[in-house]
Design a protein that fits this description.
By secondary structure, this protein is mainly alpha-helical. It contains 15 helices and 3 strands. A 3-stranded antiparallel sheet has the order 1-3-2. The two termini are 31 Å apart.
Length: 359
């Protein structure tokens, strides 16, 4: 883009004043922005400090590059920081939180594109945005609500992740959070050949870092359908967002594993203890194992399953279920700190003393 045509925002508020006045006048306030106690009013008043610019599709004849409606980088960071303080707000359903934060993050991304924000500024903003998308994959599951569609959320996640990884190669580093997001990208796209090829193009030291290498090995084993080994490697991960990305594949791994076992151990006289499956395939409880087996058409009796290929049936739609290992981590962590990159970080190895060819 021609530097002469680059627009720099001058709006120093999270929401431009004209939009605040218009949305208050037209009754278009979100319930997170309304003065407490006025939620049932037809035209409630807003709390100025809670107002955040909403996403709008560019309309014909509309000036989207008006500096007075665009927020500069520091204000965009302040906006995201405020949005993530809402994530832990008590007595708020997650689908309400997602509806609000997703829309306002989309407006942040729109401001980034219009101002052609590049370099380290773009990296720091996209890192924060990707963290929310990945967390939402787990928190929202496969529920489709008026505000959440898993396919759309995944599209936004992939788009931001790929742009972020591209910036890591374009902008001189080292980048302190690169290992974390390279790991998330591999785990989000578990078994995908293009993601695996991307890993092989990484600098040697980053590629050989133990955390990222573990994720790569898990992805390779998923591709080779060695699901048990894949799960063993995933269980060694402690990064919350990597596990959120892994969870989207968990039900498929479990069902595919049960099918393979139905073929390998298919016999009316062969019984396999369900308690062994609980740990082997990362189920939360023995009851969950038995419910899954029954949905797959496999008979369970006296704590054992009789695998038979002819009886196995794949579930058309696998219902979302929590993952206890991940729930335990989420209950102990500071969620806002994770989203802002202030906790649960994966450190970058020290490359200051390496020659260029070793990187």
């Amino acid at each position: 883009m021609d530097t002469a045509s680059i627009v720099v925002g001058t709006c120093l508020m999270k929401c431009p004043q004209p939009e605040i006045e218009m949305r208050e006048r037209e009754g278009l306030l979100h319930h997170f922005e309304i003065v407490e106690g006025q939620e049932r009013l037809k035209r409630p008043k807003c709390v100025i400090d809670r107002m955040v610019k909403e996403y709008k599709r560019p309309a014909a004849g509309q000036d989207v590059a008006d500096p007075e409606t665009l927020r500069p980088v520091p204000v965009l960071h302040q906006t995201i920081d405020y949005l993530y303080s809402i994530v832990t707000r008590p007595n708020s359903e997650w689908y309400h939180i997602y509806d609000y934060v997703f829309d306002r993050l989309r407006a942040v991304r729109q401001d980034i594109v219009i101002q052609d924000i590049q370099g380290l500024d773009a990296i720091s903003l996209l890192e924060k945005i990707v963290r929310f998308y990945v967390l939402a994959v787990y928190r929202m599951g496969n529920k489709i609500t008026p505000s959440f569609d898993p396919t759309i959320n995944n599209q936004h996640t992939q788009e931001c992740l790929k742009r972020l990884l591209s910036l890591y190669t374009e902008v001189d580093g080292p980048h302190s959070n690169q290992i974390e997001f390279e790991s998330i990208y591999l785990m989000f796209n578990l078994g995908d050949t293009s993601a695996l090829l991307h890993y092989l193009d990484l600098p040697t030291l980053i590629r050989n870092y133990h955390h990222l290498k573990l994720v790569y090995c898990a992805s390779i084993n998923y591709l080779l359908q060695n699901y048990v080994k894949c799960l063993r490697q995933i269980k060694k991960l402690t990064n919350v967002l990597c596990l959120c990305a892994a969870h989207r594949h968990l039900c498929k791994i479990q069902q595919s594993s049960l099918y393979i076992m139905s073929v390998a151990y298919g016999s009316k006289n062969c019984k396999y203890p369900t308690c062994s499956l609980e740990d082997l395939l990362c189920f939360n409880s023995q009851d969950e194992v038995e419910n899954t087996l029954e949905k797959c058409g496999l008979p369970v009796k006296d704590g054992s399953v009789c695998f038979q290929k002819s009886l196995f049936k794949q579930e058309d739609k696998v219902s979302w279920k929590p993952w206890q290992q991940l729930e335990n981590l989420l209950n102990r962590c500071n969620l806002t700190g994770i989203l802002l990159g202030k906790s649960d970080r994966i450190p970058l190895p020290d490359i200051s003393n390496l020659s260029f060819n070793d990187r």
